[in-house]
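Notebook B, p. 112. Complex prediction, attempt 2.
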Amino acid sequence: MGVTDRKEREKTEMRELIRATALKMFLEDGYAKTSIRSIAEAIEYSPGTIYLYFKDKDELLYEVQGEAYGQLLEVFKKEATSTDPLEKLRQVGRVYINFGLQNPELYDLMFIIRAPMNVDEEIHKANGGNCFGFLVDCLSDCISKKLLRINDVEQASLLVWATAHGLVSLNLRCRLKIMDQAEEAIPQILIKSMEDYLAAVTI
Amino acid sequence: MGVTDRKEREKTEMRELIRATALKMFLEDGYAKTSIRSIAEAIEYSPGTIYLYFKDKDELLYEVQGEAYGQLLEVFKKEATSTDPLEKLRQVGRVYINFGLQNPELYDLMFIIRAPMNVDEEIHKANGGNCFGFLVDCLSDCISKKLLRINDVEQASLLVWATAHGLVSLNLRCRLKIMDQAEEAIPQILIKSMEDYLAAVTI
DNA sequence: TGTAAATAATGAACACTGTTCATTATATTT
DNA sequence: AAATATAATGAACAGTGTTCATTATTTACA
């Protein structure tokens, strides 16, 4: 049956088109400000059509989230390559913070947006899990070589993640304004803070 | 002129009523899910009336934020009273995390919600500033007594805050689901993580 | 006290939002 | 060519923040 094959192909292509368009618009304008109607208009279809391919706006979010986790993992793999576990950890920290600062809207929908996380989705478990796994592996290496002041791998991973996320998200949400620091200086302050943090928990 | 006095009093009373009602509803249902219409209905006035006392929904948010910062500061003052600077720092950490876990909607509008922060508002600068100031003072004490591995006060304050905020906000936004931890265990894990973190940066 | 001016409150209207579903158009099969 | 199955539509629903001409109330003055 060549017809059913083509139909299936067309269906996945349409899903792809919607997903790619959504990602692009989420990146530019943010998740909240991107409406289903505007996505539909961008691909020159009616709003109702979106719902033939995605259950709701949340499902579109999950899809993009999974992809975004994949992107972050790629950067980790490319940029955090040192054989020295501590240096690799520092690289992970730098990469994470820069990723957040350079892709604010993407970071937002990955880690800040309010959404019922469905971790059961394959793409989520795969990408999100591997992303966190990269950090866990890195810290596991540090701990087994007795280079850290924290000995529980999960705990250490959580702490490193939380610190980096805290720095990035407080900045993205403009909460660092209460500190009297110049706007331009902030990226370097965040990076420096993360480094000082890692230095402090390092033996 | 007794009349203008009464008028002014009535005006501030009305503002108070709206602010208090908004706070209550924000706490129960969250900022986003609380509509101007529902606030108006709660105080038995028409929607338009709200706009005679507040410029827009954001202004209502600022007002409540300022009050919330004040609340957190109160808890700091009441619960973080140790004369030992390091123990006081640990108390601050515990208080902050518990505050976030016990008042999720309040924490949300204080530190997570997307909003053009207008730090220039008096109530903001006062409460928000004092709140952060409490932490700064505490860390200043620790550093001057050479108890910390980080020597820059602002940097240390930022780091402690970021870590605590990272832990709380990742949890409030369900991002810790990728770690396989039982839901009930999380509060203790966060507290424990914060303690381990402070222990690690302590000499 | 009666009327004019000032103040306060209203609620319909505007331009949006996500989502649904009866209707219409297109493509495939018989 | 007709019948069927699939795909797309767009109006409608219930909701949002916000504005503003209209109405109601209160105050000030003659």
